[in-house]
Amino acid sequence: MAVVTMRQLLESGVHFGHQTKRWNPKMKRYILTERNGIYIIDLQQTLSYIDRAYDFVKETVAHGGTVLFIGTKKQAQEAVEEQARRVGMPYVKERWLGGMLTNFSTVYKRLQRLKELEEIELTGGTEVRTKKEQLVLSREKAKLERTLGGIRDMARVPSAVWIVDTKKEHIAVGEARKLNIPVVAILDTNCDPDEVDYPIPGNDDAIRSAALLTRVVADAVGAGLMARAGASATDAKPEQLATDEPLTEWEQEVLRRDAEVPAEAPAEAPVEASAEVPAEVPAEAVQDTVGSSV
Questions:
Q1: What CATH code is carried by the domain that includes residue 118?
Q2: Same domain, yes or no, for 109 and 223?
Q3: Distance CA 175, CA 101 (A)
Q4: How many domains are contained in the chain?
């Protein structure tokens, strides 16, 4: 089953790049054409790069790794938080703090402070303090939650990062590269592909585009977690298996999807082959979409 279809990419506007005057020449190989002063990204390439990124993320998580979701622009904040929380991964949707990766030891101390403040509030420790002291602690906790809440349970630097808009998150990209952390990211026509290890050519400005591609990465994380759980179950003893926690909703959803694949594959294969494989279809769909959207 395809990770994502050409129709989904088109409907989400993944193919729309920036204006021709705002581009990075290094992105030329990912561009299909130009329409009304806007570059159109080659979605056939996007599909292949999505598969490559999906496989990498899945394998990384299956072997015990974590993926940090990063997207601080308004168009990406909701999707980044929603999808990261869905699969239990850390995320950053507010301002990126310099040193969040390269100086993680200091950041970790702030995370411990956040947990300490939560414990004080939970046990009623604020009641024995003056109102002024309570206000100071409350403000400190709120600030830490806003800036570090998404990585609250991150005990070490991630195995990989998913980034929406590498130009806006250039500090995060730089820190990841300095630590040799693989970067998986959307590459718009104004981005530098040399900064990304697993690029996905696409629109990083549209809400629907950012949401779709972030969901795909989250699905890869979910598949990796399922593979990891399966490996653990194989190695576990019978009495250990009996005490396992029940599957979460998204894990059950993945199982249902896998169970439906054999039954659907024969009927869907011809349709997919005729609707998506020919090169002229994406070009026609692109032209229609551009005409109505630009």
A1: 1.10.287.610
A2: no
A3: 6
A4: 2
pLDDT digits (tens, 9 = 90+) for 1-14: 578 999 999 999 99
What DSSP string runs through 187-255?
Answer: E-TTS-GGG-SEEEES-SSSHHHHHHHHHHHHHHHHHHHHHHHHHHHHHS-HHHHTTPPPPPHHHHHHH
pLDDT digits (tens, 9 = 90+) for 84-123: 999 999 999 999 999 999 999 999 999 999 998 888 877 7
Asked if 217 and 83 touch (Cβ cutoff 8 Å), the reply is yes
DSSP 258: H
Domain that holds residue 86: 9-96+157-261
Tokens of 129: 């303090």
Distance separating alpha carbons of residues 190 and 193, to the nearest angstrom? 9
Cα–Cα dist 40/279, whole Å: 15
> pLDDT band at 227, cuts 50/70/90?
very high
Q: What DSSP state is assigned to residue 277?
A: S
